[in-house]
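## Example record

The block below lists the input lines for one assembly entry, exactly as stored, with component labels intact.
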Amino acid sequence: MSEHELRVSKIRNGTVIDHVQGGQALNVLAILGIDGSEGLSVSVGMNVPSDRLGRKDIVKVEGRELSSSEVDVLSLIAPEATINIVRAFDVVEKNRVTRPERVVGVLSCPNRNCITNAEEPVDTRFTVIADGVRCEYCSTVVRADIAAHIDV
Ligand code: CTP
Ligand code: ZN
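Predicted structure tokens for the full assembly:
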């Protein structure tokens, strides 16, 4: 790195979501339910150069770890992402995301007539398919913009 490059600061304790597909950083924040009002320290790099991906986004969240359902949904929009857990400035754990077979209780179904949108609450269940997710109740498929259907 040359003296002319700006590096996003290291974090002390928290999570670095690295190798996010360029352009997806704001969707990553949406999945984590972060909009700034929580008061967490968050750094976002968009379209930064990457050896592996050409361009990547990176999200660093101080003082927050991720739940497994958040990681499941992340894998749908950022299949190459690496989740780094940082403690006392060291990366103590590094995991690649994996696509789950199904996502339960995280996404909402866009079909207003779906049983998951009825008054009696039923957990949503989506099967992960090659190009999106399919509602197990009504078979509605969500392909583009999965992040818009997050319900965490
Ligand atoms: N990082 C951070 N704060 C720390 C430690 C690491 O923000 N205290 C960030 C680094 O800037 C990097 C990511 O976490 O973006 C992973 O760190 P590290 O494993 O040290 O980097 P690499 O070896 O380059 O990771 P990879 O092999 O996954 O590309
Ligand atoms: Zn449905």
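The chain has two helices and nine strands. The longest helix spans residues 68-77.
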